[in-house]
Amino acid sequence: MPDVMVFPGGRVDPADARAPALTELRPETLHGLTRVGTPGIGRACAIAAARELQEETGLVLGEMRGPHVLPDLAVLDYLCRAVTPADRPMRFNARFLIAPAQAAHGKIHGSGELGEIGFYSVEAARRARMARITAMIMEEFLAWHALTPAKRAKRDLIRFVGRDSRRVER
After folding, report:
1. Residue 141 — pLDDT band, cuts 50, 70, 90?
2. Which domains does the chain have, with CATH numbers?
3. Taking the model in full, what pTM does it have?
4. Tell me, what's the pLDDT at 9?
5. How many whole angstroms separate alpha carbon 166 and alpha carbon 170?
6. Which distant-in-sequence residues (6+ apart) come within 8 Å of 129 by Cβ?
């Protein structure tokens, strides 16, 4: 999506299913990832998230072992998922994972996949030309962030379906 603000992301590669990790997912994060899919697919999604973060931004969530990220999966929280409308030629079923900023290290730099890369304040992000789903996910994150840890653990799991439909996962 040229000239539109989006989150870094990508797809699960076959190697992600058997990649090692520095730490494993916490049960509540794995639970969110496996609402649709198996524990193996959920873990592969988390490995892919750490790998794509490093490839697209230069930031490392874990340790570098040669050219590969050995991810610290325990710092990840599950936020939500989004499924593109059925009438779109390119479809995705994306899971959104979050981690504390201090868990990522390294010098932020692009790989050429993204036009401009950086950290943005909420106000600056809201002023930017942002993909609609990105704005919705950002608002979901802000609502999550405002909760206490105890309330986060008890919150409903959310999915966005179609263009504007926010639904509770069942």
Report:
1. very high
2. 14-168 (3.90.79)
3. 0.91
4. 77
5. 13
6. 3, 4, 5
